[in-house]
Amino acid sequence: MKWTFVIWLAAQGTVVVAQEKPPTPVNEQQLEMQAEREEGITEDDSQWQQLEYLQQHPINLNTATENELKNLRLLTDLQISNLLLYRSLLGPLLQVHELQAVPAWDVPTIKRLLPYIVVSDPKNIIEKLGERFRQGEQTLLLRLAQTVNTSGEAAKATDSYLGSAAAVLVRYKYNYKNLLQFGITGDKDAGEQFFKGTQKNGFDFYSFHFFARKLGIIQSLAIGDFTIGFGQGLIQWQGMGFKKSAEVLSIKRQGATLQPYNSAGEYNFHRGIGVTLQKKNIQFTAFGSYRKLNTNLITDSLLNSPGYISSIITTGYHRTMAELNDRNNVPCITTGAALKLANNRSHIGVNAVQYLLSNPLQPGGQVYDQFAINGRNWSNYSVDYSYTFRNMHVYGEVAVDKLLNRAMIHGLLAGLDPKVDLAIVYRSINNRYQSLFSNAFTENSLPVNENGFYAGLSIKPVAGWKLDVYMDVFRFPWLKYQVNAPTEGHEYLIQLNYTPNKYLELYTRFRQETKSMNETDSLPGISPVVPVTRLNWRTHVSYRLNKTVELRSRVETVWYARNSKQAETGFLFYTEGHVKPAFKPFFFSARIQYIETDGYNSRLYAFENTVLYNFSIPPLFNKAFRYVVNVNYRLTRSSVMQRPRKINCLLSFSIAQTLYPAHSAVETTTTLIDAYNRLDAKLQIILKRR
């Protein structure tokens, strides 16, 4: 009976296997909106590495666990729960077409997954420990990036930096089917010293990780650097976590609690040991971490006191003596644990994390900082849950901090109809609630001082059309940085996608956001709070001429006003081409772009492909032309030792330059260099041995 059903699906759903080009491993719109919201993106390419690895070693959907499916970050929990339930009721999938019969799964979702999945007979193969160390894939990445300034004035302005202008990244990684991986990363930022001065050991930042999965009762074991994700991020979430975007259903934090860390970011991770144990439906995670943080440490030599921490520095830059004085100056011990009881439909978990610093945190004298963390130790506790019933998935987390200040997030994902999906998030975070290393679905960058309600709809009325809309209303009960009163705001987005075939994809999007900030032109001593409105309209089109060439173009406008005054407008246009000839070792892309805005407030953002595992989303403002070129060449050769092996070499080179016809070559201040007409170049070599 099941074979007859699968044959019918294959006849009806051949569109699923028409995938010719693997999708981008990262969602560009999500990253662009994240960069705009936080004025920058934390460097974390873990997901990109994971998905690129899965293109060569796809997941078998007949044996994939819940955590493996969550780590893809391409599926909602409703889709994951329905797949696990479908598999338990009807047995293993026979063909990929059968996924169309799983509730809440649709053709676009399946097409997005195709490069990373297979459907095959489940086999009970015992992985020998020796094979894990011998049969894995080894990857060596070397990247050199530098901003080239030909102006003598620019070179003079950079003299305050102790090191060279080159940024260097070296990363070695061993991976055996995601069951065993280990590696080391070394990173030097531009302006930091290298094998001299204060960095006689080479790189400014080193990271090592060893991570093993499925060792009997040990589900995961981490030694070295790792990340922790509890619940919905109210007390701890160190991996990438997107907030509002055109992906209106991507509202839930998901992924395994314990994850390896091998990115170049120097702040958002732990260093020590962590373990996840699992026995049937019970899972327990515990970890301990010791690392030194970069802080602004205030001392008084007259009082001979150890000093206090005025702020924690997250940038990772150590280019000047002042930045070096703040480097690794405060040890931090972090411990935590989580206990979870789960089945295919539901889970409930209890989480705890504690911090002990060598020096106390002490908030500044500003009124908005009144409730910040105070003292040497801090702790957070939470309970999180989820439950799936038919086409409805509810989830949430309730947390308290050391002083019993409360925070909560509750969400709903529901399939109202095969063509309509709904997402809802309610959050209530006390203005006194505080946490470290947290990242929840909030308007603020951190889960603090916020109440809000988010609702999103994704509608697919007919084949080829998709409408995504969301609204979010929020309120901040206490003062914020540059906001001298309790305020409220709202945000709306509507996006219409049109994909009539595999060659054309077009979307148009309108977004409106209103928040409040202090008036900048007020009288001395008086800073009234005024509404700030930002409107965006974007149209983007991608067209595949053939299997080799894809063209993309975008037009975007922005209107910005503070208290209906000081209005600024902005405009962006770009067109680019991606060329990837079949059976050829090279592929490249090129973009030309024009930007014109009235100032920084009307800036625009556009995702740029550079070298593999790396991207750029610079703020674009003033009147400028910009071009980006990315060239890749792949070398492959086979070697025969005890068994056939493949050695791949991918050479990548990218350049990007912004030309400002109305500005001089360089403008400098005591702490900032704005080099106009500068050129950013990156060269990367990736060696892989399979």
UniProtKB/TrEMBL annotation:
<protein>
    <recommendedName>
        <fullName>Helix-hairpin-helix DNA-binding motif class 1 domain-containing protein</fullName>
    </recommendedName>
</protein>
<dbReference type="InterPro" id="IPR010994">
    <property type="entry name" value="RuvA_2-like"/>
</dbReference>
